[in-house]
Design goal:
Elements (H helix, E strand, L loop, with lengths): L6 E11 L9 E12 L3 E5 L6 H9 L4 E10 L2 E2 L5 H7 L1 E4 L6 E5 H13 L5 H14 L10 E2 L5 H15 L3 E5 L7 H18 L2 E6 L12 E6 L2 E6 L1 H10 L2 H14 L1
Parallel strand pairs: 3-10, 3-11, 6-9, 9-10
Antiparallel strand pairs: 1-2, 1-4, 4-5, 7-8, 11-12
Helix pairs in contact: 5-6
């Protein structure tokens, strides 16, 4: 029996972000994003810093600082923009953040079981859950003692990223958005985290939206689709060969073309 086909579809998405100064006007960041991610597909979104990649991830997840001004996001035909943040997670969306937050006073073990209960609709049986968590931690080289520590408190950058991928493996979402998962990782941690993502793809047949501006993670996680993101939109799409071009030549060709287009459209 084949797995159901899940589809995240983004059409002409525009979004802005509130500034720190409450009296300042919000800044328009996304300027017409079109993208479709299906089960079993891996899409890499690559672009320079400040191009709006993280804004896209936050807009999909429902971060309150980011306001979608026009366009649509649907998951299996359902309107994601009408869902609360927790409803998006229960529907099957997952965001691994670039900068995972610390949650003092909440143990990793309690956090993980509570999250699994919320997304699965019932509490996992404790005996099976303990075995499931132990196996997942072992695959990611996470010390079981971390389960009793507060969420991300005092964790290194690499430890935080491993725990994001631990959540991915346990929550089993339909579509995973990984925002700069490779940032701050040494080579060994990068291999372990990438293997966790690959296992999720193989076991759950999930769709992956991988946001990065470095090509090194693409040596371990092989995307079928690569998109260049500049100036708040996707300016070119292709296969893995597009990442090779970016590795060799950088983003100059795309940033120059985007700047010209913006000037002509002004």
């Amino acid at each position: 029996m084949s797995s159901p086909q899940n589809v995240l579809e983004i059409k002409d998405l525009h979004a802005r972000v509130a500034q720190t100064d409450a009296n300042a006007e919000p800044i328009d960041i996304l300027k017409g994003v079109n993208l479709t991610v299906r089960s079993g597909e891996t899409h890499a979104i690559m672009g320079p810093n400040g191009s709006g990649k993280s804004t896209l991830s936050y807009a999909i997840a429902g971060h309150p600082k980011y306001e979608v001004t026009s366009g649509s996001i649907t998951l299996n035909g359902e309107d994601v923009l009408e869902m609360s943040v927790d409803e998006r997670a229960r529907a099957g969306l997952f965001l691994a953040m670039q900068y995972p937050v610390e949650v003092p006073g909440v143990s990793m073990s309690n956090f993980l079981r509570t999250a699994a209960t919320a997304t699965r609709g019932e509490a996992p049986k404790l005996r099976h859950w303990v075995k499931e968590v132990k196996e997942a931690m072992n695959e990611l080289d996470i010390d079981p003692a971390f389960g009793e520590r507060s969420v991300n408190e005092g964790f290194s950058g690499g430890e935080k990223k491993r725990h994001e991928i631990l959540q991915l493996g346990l929550l089993k979402p339909q579509i995973a958005i990984l925002d700069e998962t490779d940032s701050g990782l040494d080579v060994d941690a990068l291999r372990v985290v990438s293997e966790g993502v690959n296992q999720y793809r193989e076991r759950e047949h999930g769709g992956v939206l991988l946001i990065t501006h470095y090509t090194r993670i693409l040596r371990y996680i092989k995307p079928e689709h690569v998109h260049v993101f500049v100036g708040g939109r996707i300016v070119e799409s292709g296969g893995p060969e597009l990442a090779d071009e970016l590795e060799a030549n950088g983003y100059e060709r795309f940033t120059a073309a985007a700047a010209t287009a913006d000037t002509q459209g002004a």
